Amino acid sequence: MPVLDSLRLNQTDSIVILTGAGISQESGLDTFRCAGGIWSEVDLEDVATPRGFARNPDLVHRFYNDRRRGLLDPAIQPNAAHAALAALERGWRGSVTLVTQNIDDLHERAGSADPIHMHGALLKAVCQRCHAVTDCHDDLSVHDLCLSCGGKGGLRPDVVWFGETPYHMDRIQAALEDCDLFLSIGTSGHVYPAAGFVAEAGANGAVTVELNLDPSEGVSRFDRAIQGPATALVPALVA
Ligand code: BV8
User: Could you say which residues bind NAD(+) here (predicted)?
Assistant: First the structure.
């Protein structure tokens, strides 16, 4: 029985979905905090904070250049979980708001219409001076300058680092306020404000469900938690 049926939702109910690195793991992208994850290889202070970028921009550019090249490897493709969410968006009569902490583009490539990238996007760069955002599929360096402001500003990855304000928070808060189902997929529930969304949705009366390989740090705040790989659980959700 698909999980959605068992939740006795109406087809016009509103759904908010939050995804994390776990939904892209079976596509071949590393997670952050699983064994051997990204943060076990490099100190987030050095590569995912404004201080780290100010201290050593070349190191930070190398970190994101490596991940960008990895994401652009043809072997990296959306998986059945990304596809199932895109199908849910197309088939559901109510609103579906997909919020992702991920900076990969696998939701878009699977067909999701408008994923909200609250932590930014690996395939975008932003000007440190005029904040113009451009596509970025090549390596970035301190020598890359912004064309929009006549080369006066340097480019950085369009990624939200620790201590920076996540993108699209107004849209996210509005969606959390009137959602009937909050679905969290493939996140450890470690990073805020994303980790606090389940409490906000629950306080607004939503049913909250976690689909994750292991119980997250916030598992006790969910009405239901189902463990397993995303490519098994998510398609079953919407079958
Ligand atoms: C903010 C960059 C204010 C992009 C990331 C002191 C000073 C300043 C801030 C703070 C502070 N103390 C706390 C904070 C808040 C801080 C924070 O949360 N820190 C943590 C360390 C405690 N947050 C911030 O600074 C944020 N900004 O608070 O501004 C504000 C707040 C509200 C409104 C306005 C202003 C900014 C946070 C963004 C930081 N940037 N990364 C990049 O390089 O990618 S966060 C980083 O962690 C990634 O972006 C990632 O998206 C995110 C969350 O990780 P997960 O996606 O959950 O991945 P993880 O590996 O942890 O877990 C994977 C899960 O998947 C596991 O549970 C695993 O079991 C599961 N899994 C694995 N395989 C599968 C699977 N599940 C299913 N199937 C599988 N196959």
Answer: 101-104, 186-188, 212-214, 230
Q: Can you tell me the ipTM of this complex?
A: 0.95
Tally of structural domains, the chain:
2
119 is catalytic: yes
Q: Cα separations (Å) of 130 from 97, 148, 156, 199?
A: 29, 8, 12, 36
Residues 206 and 219 occupy one common structural domain: yes
Model pLDDT for residues 4-32, shown as the tens digit of each residue: 777 777 878 999 999 999 999 999 999 99
201 and 86 belong to one structural domain: yes
Measuring CA to CA, how many Å separate 227 from each of 2, 22, 62, 211?
15, 12, 35, 6
pTM, two decimals, is 0.96
Catalytic one among 61, 119, 168, 190?
A: 119
- The preferred substitution site among 31, 61, 170 for testing ligand 1, maximizing ligand atoms within 8 Å of CB, is 31
